[in-house]
Amino acid sequence: MANASGETGFLANLGKVYAIYTGGFLAFVILIAILEQLGVPNRVLGYMFVGFTILIYAMIGILSRTAQVSEYYVAGRKVPAIYNGMATGADWMSGASFVGMAGTLFALGYDGLAFVLGWTGGYVLVSVLLAPYLRKFGAYTVPDFLGARYGGNIARFLGVLVLLACSFTYVVAQIYATGIIASRFLGMSFEVAVYAGLLGILVCSMLGGMRAVTWSQVAQYIVLIVAYLTPVVILSTQKYGIPVPQLMYGQALQDITAREGQMIADGLAKLTADGGTLKPHIQAFLTYDRLNYFALIFCLMVGTASLPHILMRYFTTPSVRDARKSVAWSLFFIFLLYFTAPSYAAFAKLEVYTNVIGQSLDALPRWISTYSSLGLVDIYGVSLTKLAAGLGAVKDALAAGATDAAGVAVALSGAGKTAALAGWSALSGPVQGVVFEAFQANNAATAADLFKPAIAAAAQAAGNTTGLLGHAGLAINNDVIVLSTPEIAGMPYVIAGLVAAGGLAAALSTADGLLLAIANALSHDIYYKMIDTQAPTSRRLVVSRILLVVVAILAAYVASTKPADILAMVAWAFSIAAAGLFPALVLGVWWKRANKTGAIVGIIAGFGICLYYLVGTRYYAVSFYEMWGGLSGASDAAVTKYAELKAAWEGAAPEAKAAAWKAFDAHAQKVANWFGVANISSALFGIPAGVIGIVVGSLLTAAPSRAMQDFIDEIRRPKGKELMEGGNLVNEVH
Predict the structure, then answer these.
(1) What is the DSSP string of 161-180?
(2) Cα-atom radius of gyration of the chain, to the nearest Å?
(3) Angle subtended at Cα 467 by Cα 463 and Cα 470, rounded to the nearest 5 degrees
(4) Pseudo-torsion of CA 195, 196, 201, 207, nearest 10°?
(5) Can you give 491-537 as a three-state secondary structure string?
(6) Cα–Cα distance, 459 to 431 (Å, whole number)
(7) What would the DSSP string read from start to end of 595-655?
(8) Do residues 552 and 198 lie in contact, with contact meaning Cβ atoms separated by under 8 Å?
């Protein structure tokens, strides 16, 4: 791929190249299975799985290196529709989607389908409203379109701002996902695993830009779809003798419903309506009411159609027609995963309900301790990570003069050990007693030594006298479901390793696309278009590569701190993109009267209101509710509880102030809203504000020039040449 003839030959033989790659990958999986049977340690197999796949992606990245701007930004606009569809599928199916989608459906049941409907429906909007027209326009980036369509650099700069807001936390989450996978399957610490994952990301994208990312994403899609389908096909075959899980989904739902009834009859579970934790899997609107269910679908649809790293993919096709076909292929390849996700969740839940719930607390499956050591599984509030933190807290407290478990918190507070105090406070009273006594008896005690006695104490405190694991006692992080299902079902390690490789492929592919979107926007739209408009090609590419590395390192650092709100922020990305970009993009294509002033007002209004609602209801919930309580959709009971918690906080003693505030703020987040709309759906307010801002701002100021209006007409015609070349308009129209 180093020269034009080589590139032509590669494009002509894409089918053969990726067929050989797929065959080689399957042969590698078979080799790993054989090595497992020969007794090779799982850790070695994990290194082989992850190392081999990253090596392949790195080779593609190195072979696809380029020094041409169009190749770096848009892969030379040569990517065939079907392969661009596969690359888009990989770009879209992030680590969060691959790892978390089935987990969300596992936890939410029917209500989780809002994510499937919203995310897949978004590609219909992309196809109908945006992709072909942005391709005809010929821009390099989404802010590039805004700058050219609306004139000047203000709209361009605002587009970059929105892009950064919705893309940075998203890329942090992908690197976070690589850290979780690598720490689990490579046995390294999370902090080291994050930077190991970063290295894999950079070699795919830094040298070849969009060209390297495209061909590595095609390879990654093959890995991730094989990895996703394999465990659930095996489960379907084991359970029902039919290797088509999508067809057996209905039977699995019937069995889940029957098992739920059995667990209730055996005293292992209670419905949420009766004060328990069990949500019937097929019952609707238990997590989201009707308003928030459909609001979430709407915001995810519009947000999907606005994400810059997704829209960028359609700049790479040879023609407008290919852009349309590419969206259809994208939807098909994404459908393969999303059509499977509900059945994956159902089969995983059936395994947990059948083989985990009701087991003796003294004989829990090994995978529970494995994921508990990562803080991803709790048994009655107990995990190995919490116990380790508790042991550290006891050590600090004894050094500060504590003499019993009751004095640990006071000693830690007096010594200023806030982190240790937080770790100690995360344990319930009975578990604190177990930890303190164990450490006093043996200061070399480990978390693993205390796991069973701590679980027994916590279970008894929760009213469990049977010694069996009840539904309320098992808390599984949603992200664990996909990774742990092979282990839950007792499959060979090779299947678990395959799933890890798929999750890693999903995280790497999306991280590559996001980093490229951020770096290209900064290098092309800020540096080249606003700072140095005469910069030569070589300098532009150097700047882009430097920015890509800087952003990647910054994102890895943030991920290594394990930010608590990162998954919530990823969900926010869709509302931010929808409110900040969708009105300006769609009206820029479909309303010739839209002008610069309208776009600026609309982007600021939509993005501003969306961000205000997101940040206000999450981080300043008390202040938000105090200001907007009259618009809250909270029930009378919730309002009464708010007043009680506020009074409790105001009257709390100094040492109890922090705990009282935590409870008060947590409840405030539930009542701080407008008309009951959850903050994940904040675009419900931002999108109308953006549309109104553009319409009013445009109508109150001069219309765009006749040349610009003719230009917009030309964008809507499928035939004809693209209207930008080399990142600049062919004919000036402002």
Answers:
(1) HHHHHHHHHHHHHHHHHHHH
(2) 27
(3) 65
(4) 90
(5) CCHHHHHHHHHHHHHHHHHHHHHHHHHHHHHHHHHHHHHHHCCCCCH
(6) 10
(7) -HHHHHHHHHHHHHHHHHHHHHHHHSHHHHHHHHGGG----HHHHHHHHHHHHHHHT--GG
(8) yes
Q: Where are the alpha helices (DSSP H) in 13-80?
A: 14-37, 42-63, 69-74
pLDDT tens-place string over residues 301-318: 999 999 999 998 898 898
**What DSSP assignment string belongs to 407-447?**
GHHHHHHHTT-HHHHHHHHTS-HHHHHHHHHHHHH-TT--H
Distance between CA atoms of 526 and 542, rounded to whole angstroms? 14
Q: Give, in order, the Cα–Cα distances in Å from 668 to each of 295, 386, 614.
A: 21, 26, 14
Count of Cβ atoms closer than 10 Å to residue 608 Cβ = 16
Residue 56 phi, psi (nearest 5): -60, -45
Q: Which pair of structure tokens corresponds to residue 520?
A: 């290209």
CA distances from residue 352 to 44, 131, 270, 365, 554 in whole angstroms, order as listed: 28, 42, 16, 11, 38
CA atoms of 583 and 578, how far apart (whole Å)? 8
Contacts of 556 by beta carbon, 8 Å cutoff, 6+ apart = 175, 194, 195, 197, 198
Distance CA 486, CA 498 (A): 10
pTM comes to: 0.89
- H/E stretch holding 118: helix 113-125
Token pair of 60, please? 């593609």
The residue count for the chain: 734
CA 363 to centroid of chain Cα atoms: 34
Higher pLDDT: 534 or 227? It is 227
Q: Tell me the backbone φ, ψ of residue 360, rounded to 5 degrees.
A: -65, 140
Residue type, 709: Q
Give every CB contact of residue 419 below 8 A, 6+ residues apart in sequence: none
Question: Per DSSP, what are the bridge partners of residue 577?
Answer: none
pLDDT given at position 733: 57
Please, which residues bridge with residue 729 across strands?
724
The Cα-based distances of 310 to 162, 331, 505 in angstroms read 15, 12, 17
Q: What is the DSSP string of 282-318?
A: T-SSSSS-HHHHHHHHHHHHHHHTT-HHHHGGGGSSS
Nearest to 475 by CA among 364, 568, 382, 342: 382
**DSSP structural state of residue 679:** G
Among 28, 32, 77, smallest CA distance to 56 is for 28
73: closest CA among 174, 131, 143? Answer: 143
- Of the pLDDT bands very low, low, confident and very high (cuts 50, 70, 90), residue 139 is confident
Pick from 252, 261, 276, 155: which is nearest to 525 by CA?
Answer: 155
Tokens 């140095």, located at residue: 532
**pLDDT tens per residue, range 467-508:** 999 999 999 988 788 888 998 898 999 999 899 889 888 888
613-626: per-residue pLDDT in tens? Answer: 999 999 999 999 99
Q: How far apart are CA 326 and CA 80, in angstroms?
A: 8
φ, ψ for residue 373 (rounded to 5)?
-70, -15
Q: 231 near 491, Cβ under 8 Å?
A: yes
What contacts 357, CB < 8 A, 6 or more positions away?
A: 263, 268, 269, 469, 470, 471, 474
Residue 217 φ/ψ, nearest 5 degrees: -70, -35
